[in-house]
Every structure is written in C-alpha cells, then in structure tokens.
Write a structure and sequence with these properties.
Number of helices of chain B: 10
Structural class of chain A: alpha/beta
Helix content of chain B: 25-40%
Number of helices of chain A: 10
CATH superfamily of chain B: P-loop containing nucleotide triphosphate hydrolases
Strand order of the largest sheet of chain B: 6-9-10-3-11-12
Oligomer: heterodimer
Number of strands of chain B: 12
Strand order of the largest sheet of chain A: 2-1-5-8-10-12-14-16-18-20
Largest sheet of chain B: 6 strands, mixed
Shape of chain A: globular
Number of strands of chain A: 20
Low-confidence stretches of chain A: none
Number of domains of chain B: 1
Order of helices and strands of chain B: EEEHEEHEEHHHEHEHEHEEHH
Structural class of chain B: alpha/beta
Radius of gyration of chain B: 18 Å
CATH class of chain B: Alpha Beta
Strand content of chain B: 25-35%
Helix content of chain A: 25-40%
Strand content of chain A: 35-45%
Radius of gyration of chain A: 21 Å
Mean pLDDT of chain A: 96
C-alpha cells in the first residue's frame, strides 16, 4: 500500500545498506536465511522504532541512535582478554558460566566442562547452520511479536548460546549467561535459546557488560521455554557501560503448574530498553516479572511488558521500582492481556517511581486488556518525591540527609527485590543498590 | 541547658511563636501546657529542626550554642531528642536496622567509634525488655502496624538508646491507656539524671502525675504567659485555659 518513500535517518540507511553483504557471512541453514530475509523485510517497512510507534513512544530509537555502529566481528584474542577483565568485575554468584562475546559463543570464557549435571550449553551460531532441533522448533517462537528491534536481531544475529536443562533436574548451582561487548564501538545482536525440561528447576543469571565510554549498540534476544512444572528464577543485570545503548527482548513461554520469576536490574547504560513478552501456555502457573532502575545523569531506561494470559487459572505479578536522579528518564509500559479463554486469571501490576530531582522524568503506562469475565486484575502506578516528614523523622534521630535518603530508597527498591527467591542473588542485588546509593 | 530567647516563628505567613522565652536547667523536668493551637508542637519541631518553619527572630541555645543554624541530624548528635506525638511508619526499614543506623550516625558525628554488633544487641534487648517491647517487633518495619501505645514505647526506647541531653516529649500521653502511660512514664523517669533535661509538652495534667515536673509553663498565643511549680498544673486542670486565652490576646 505504501507508495511513499520513507525518509531514512543516517542510522537506518547504514543498517539497510549493510544487510546484503552481512547476510552472506551470517550463519544459518536456508530456513534461517529465509527467516533473516523476512525479518529484514519488516525492518525495511518500519525502520527504527520512533515516538509515533505507540510501543516505543517514550524511547525514540531514531533519535537515540543517531548513527549505526558497525557490526561487531568475531572476537579476537585481544577482545577475549578484554572481555575477561570486564567479567572479573561482575558480582560473583558462584555460577557456572556460559559466555557470549560480541554476539558469539565464547567457549574459552565458559565453564562448559563444569556445568551442573543435566545442563548443556552450546554454540547457537553453529546450531543456526546445522539445523539444530531447538533452532528449528523454538527460534523466534517466544519472542514472536511484530517489533522492529526483534526483527533487527533476527536479521543480524551472528550467534549466541543454547542452554538446555534436562527434565526433572533440580540444578543446584546458578547458570550465568554473560553477554559482553568489547573492542571499538560496535553493534551486536546476541541471542540465546533456553529450554527447561518438564519438572526442572534452575536459577539463571543473565548479565550484560561493556566498558564505560564506548558507544556500543546491543540488541539482544533471549528466549526461555519453560515446560510444565518447572521452577525458574531469571535475574538480568544490565551492567553495560555508560555510553552503551542496550535494547533487549526477553520472550518467555511458560508451561502448566510452573513458576517463573524474571527480574531486570539497570543502573548504568546511557539508554536501555528491556521488553518482555511473557506467554502463559499452561494452566495453574505463576509468573513474576519485576525490576528496578536506578538512574542518574541523563540516563534513560525503559521497561515494556506484554503479559499474555492465553490460558485459564494463571497468576501474574509485576512489580517495578524506579529511582530517578538528575535528568534521568524512566519508562514503564505494562500491558496485561487476558484472553477470553483465560478465566480465573489473577494479575497485579505496580510501577512506582521516586524522583530525586526536579529535572527527572517518569513515564508510567500500565494497561489491562481483559476479555474474560471471571478475573481479578489490577494495576497501579505512582510517581513522587521522598516523603519530607519521614526524612525529618530519620534526621531527627541523627541520620544525615544522604544516609536518611539512602535508607528510604533502599527500602523502596527492596520491595521490588523481594520477588527474588534466591537469597544469595537478592543479597547481591541489595549490595549493588547500596553501592549505587553510596555513590550518589 | 536550653535557653530560648525571644523566638518568633512563622509557617506559610502564619505567625505561630511570638516572642517565646524559656529556660530549662540541667536536670530539670519542665512542662509546657496550653490550649490547642497555642504553638506547643511548633515549639518542639523548631527545637528539633524541622525545615518547614521560618524563624524570624530569636535564638535557641543548647549549652550556650545557638542550634538554629544546625540541621536536624546535627542537633540530634548534639543531644536534642524529640519524641514525636505521631511517630512515623517507615515500611521496609527494619526497626533494628534503623536503631543501629541512628546510634552509629550520632556516634560518628561525635567522633566516636561505631558500636560492635554484640554491644548494640545487648543494649537494644535490655532497653526493649524494660519497656515491654517484644523482640519480634524489632524485626518488623519501623512502627509499621504498631498500635499507638507501641509506637510511643518505641519512641522512649529510641530515647533511652540515643542517650540525649535534652528530651522533648510532644503529647506523649495522647492515645495511651493508663497501663501504657505508666510504662512510658517509668521509661522516662528511669532516664532522669542531673545532666539531662526534659521538656514535657502536654494538654492534660494526667501525664504530670507520672512524670512529675519541676516547673510548669503555660503557653498561649505563641508565648509563655505564666510559670509556676507543679501545683500550676492542678490549677489548670481545675479551671481550664479560658483565663489564659484572653490574657495573651
């Protein structure tokens, strides 16, 4: 229908001109190549998401990405050495590591020989080319929305990791999926496919890291397929550098009688957009999607949720805390869709923000779309300053202003952290919150 | 100990304190009584350093040093303690965490070492026991879900642990039944000492049966209009504040 030639930004033009050459060297069977072409076709139609696209209203990638960074190549030995340094600074969760550098599986920085029993990890880049069963059956099935960031990843993904947990296995050690961007400023499109077999339980820690001062552009997609009666804790720590623009998509398909918690923590990147596509595929399951953003300077962090209650008898909880200082911007868009078949759905969504400066901005947009008639759903959003009377109470007991504020803010963020069941992980995040508050 | 000279205070262009002068000596228990709206709570907030108030004139000297320029936390470290009429609830901040933070902040401000955890626990347990505060209350969010009486006892526990020099009790008797009033009063009386002074603000004489004052000041229209001994409280109880309302006007 469109016979108007859209005006392309410099970044869009660069991305468009890059694909014909890039696709020749990107891995994949003919089926994967077709998928890339289709995805690229969608990007040709839509371009980078911008403020007139409702779901991207508050995160205008067209203006955030003035230029398109060149595609990252396969990591060199020097890149791997640099990645090792960045990874060493991450909190230690005592996890078994699976590492992806510049969008490619990095076995030398992974603990492939020491994975817990029942857990396998492999190279997604290789799997794309070999017609791996998981790629054929699962790729793009959890993160299937019509979204141009997702489309870009599908077009340009160079690899990543596959992690599979065998049915019935209670994994006793966290699995850390670590994504690193190193070298000069580059665009990376990492991807991960995670399959958790029936009755298995696991803690997944997903970290993203890059150095300060380098304008990387990361666009990662993680898809989690958690079968019936699984128990999954997923914590994502966005530790990207302060010049990185990070767009991330998490797709979840959750089976019946299962429980999955996903928490996203962000403090440092220049701009971050985390979108979650969460689908209940089996009854009597619970999904918690939560997160905390602590931002200062001119940082920007967006969390956009799409929770799809496609079956009966499931419960979802979404709890988000945003602490915004200086000229930082927070965005929360949460959509809970309750389809007509999804009777007895129990959904509660809450997004709360504290503004510590007159120049900080919060955009809250919680939404419910309900087509079933026997449900209990609610949502709420608050934006405010710290309570002056509480501050005075604490100061009258001798706490200096900064300490009193830190105590109140830690309690505020703590409410969102409570959804993390793994105590070690929760305490580590509490430590990160404390460190951020101390450095304010 | 505390000397207030010609204090004039307003909030949002409304004059609340109008040339108040008051002296409280070391070891003294001074009571301030007065009708509603006479400025009693404002006086307590201004001494403690609440930022909303505008001090137009006057001085508040603690041991000869003007504290008006000091922030609330610096005043606390210097020994001022206000037991709030309505203690605030702070969800998510465990009472223990708060007590430790407050005690250590004051110690730090005075250049003292932080308390060892064992020492801290010992002090809190002993203080809580005296006031009938159960241990599980200390693990809960500060004042969250506490009854009126529990909140007031928690205020007195804080007072005991922080060992202030100058204690202000703002309507501590409000919302207390007789049993709670006795416990709270015993807690206060146990803290009396020659180098500590109390300013007990109350609307009713009842509290002064339990915390016996050395001096009683009547406040009306933002100033002290009469000063006497403890018998003045009884006189007020019998005759009411009607005389003073007109006297100061």
């Amino acid at each position: 229908m469109t016979d108007v030639t859209p005006i392309r930004t410099a970044a869009e033009s660069a991305i468009l001109s890059r694909f014909p050459e890039a696709k020749a060297s990107l891995p994949g069977t003919p089926a994967v190549a077709t998928l890339r072409e289709q995805a690229f076709g969608r990007f040709v139609e839509t371009g980078l998401p911008h403020r007139r696209v409702e779901k991207w209203k508050y995160t205008d990638l067209r203006s955030i990405m003035r230029e398109a960074a060149p595609l990252a190549g396969a990591p060199s030995a020097a890149d791997l050495a640099a990645a090792k340094v960045l990874l060493a600074a991450l909190p230690d969760f005592g996890a078994a590591n699976v590492t992806v550098v510049n969008g490619r599986f990095a076995p030398s920085l992974s603990d492939l020989g020491a994975l817990p029993a029942g857990v396998t990890a492999s190279d997604l880049g290789e799997a794309l080319g070999s017609g791996h069963k998981l790629v054929v059956e699962r790729l793009g099935r959890a993160a299937s929305a019509d979204d141009s960031a997702l489309a870009l990843n599908a077009a340009f993904m160079a690899g990543g990791a596959i992690v599979a947990v065998a049915a019935g296995v209670a994994v006793d050690r966290p699995i850390a999926l670590r994504f690193v961007s190193v070298g000069t400023a580059a665009a990376t499109y990492p991807r991960a496919l995670i399959e958790i077999g029936t009755g298995a339980s696991v803690t997944l820690i997903e970290t993203h890291v890059s150095a300060d001062g380098i304008a990387h552009q990361a666009n990662g997609v993680v898809e989690i397929f958690a079968g019936d009666e699984t128990k999954v804790e997923h914590v994502r720590i966005n530790a990207h550098g302060d010049a990185t623009v990070d767009v991330s998509s998490l797709g979840v398909v959750l089976g019946g009688k299962a429980e999955l918690n996903s928490f996203n923590f962000v403090t440092n990147p220049a701009a971050a957009r985390h979108q979650v596509f969460f689908r209940f595929a089996g009854e009597h399951s619970t999904g918690n999607v939560s997160g905390a953003s602590l931002l200062k300077g001119k940082r920007h962090a967006d969390t956009t949720l799409f929770v799809d209650h496609a079956v009966e008898n499931c419960a979802s909880r979404e709890t988000f805390a945003h602490v915004l200082d200086d000229q930082a911007t927070g965005v929360f868009q949460g959509m809970i869709l309750v389809r007509d078949v999804a009777q007895k759905t129990d959904g509660k969504m809450m997004s709360r923000a504290v503004l510590l400066s007159d120049d900080a901005t919060m955009n809250n947009k919680p939404e419910l779309e309900i087509y079933a008639d026997d449900v209990a759903c609610g949502h709420g959003a608050t934006v405010g300053a710290l309570d002056e009377d509480l501050l005075f109470y604490l100061r009258a007991r001798g706490l200096p202003k900064a300490e009193a504020e830190a105590l109140m803010l830690a309690a505020f963020v703590g409410e969102a952290l409570e959804s993390i069941a793994n105590e070690t992980v929760r305490e580590t995040l509490e430590g990160l919150v404390e460190a951020w508050l101390k450095a304010r | 100990m505390l000397e207030i000279r010609n204090l004039h205070v307003q909030i949002e262009d409304k004059k609340i304190l109008d040339g108040l002068t008051l002296t409280v000596n070391d070891g003294e228990v001074a009571a301030i009584m007065g009708p509603n709206g006479s400025g009693k709570s404002t006086l307590s907030y201004v001494i403690a350093g609440k930022p909303d108030y505008e001090v137009l004139d006057g001085e508040i000297l603690l041991d000869g040093e003007n504290i008006l320029e000091m922030e609330a936390d610096a005043r606390a470290a210097a020994g001022v303690f206000l037991a709030f009429q309505y203690p605030l609830e702070i969800p998510g901040v465990a009472t223990m965490t708060f007590l430790k933070a407050a005690m250590n902040a004051q110690r730090k401000a005075r250049g003292e070492d932080e308390l060892a955890t064992a020492d801290f626990m010992k002090r809190v347990r002993a203080g809580a026991e005296k006031l009938g505060i159960p241990q599980d209350m200390l693990k809960r969010g500060l004042n969250v879900g506490f009854s009126g009486g529990e909140k007031k006892r928690m205020e007195i526990l804080q007072m005991a642990l922080l060992e202030p020099r100058f204690c202000i009790l703002d309507e501590t008797d409000s919302g207390l039944d007789i049993d709670a009033l006795k416990i709270v009063s015993e807690g206060v009386n146990a803290l009396k000492s020659p180098d500590r002074a109390f300013l007990v603000i109350t609307h009713y004489q009842r509290l002064l049966n339990y915390i016996v004052p050395d001096t009683v000041h009547v406040m009306a229209h933002g100033k002290i209009v009469k000063t006497g001994g403890k018998e003045l409280a009884l006189e007020l109880e019998a005759n009411g504040y009607a005389d003073y309302k007109t006297l100061a006007a």
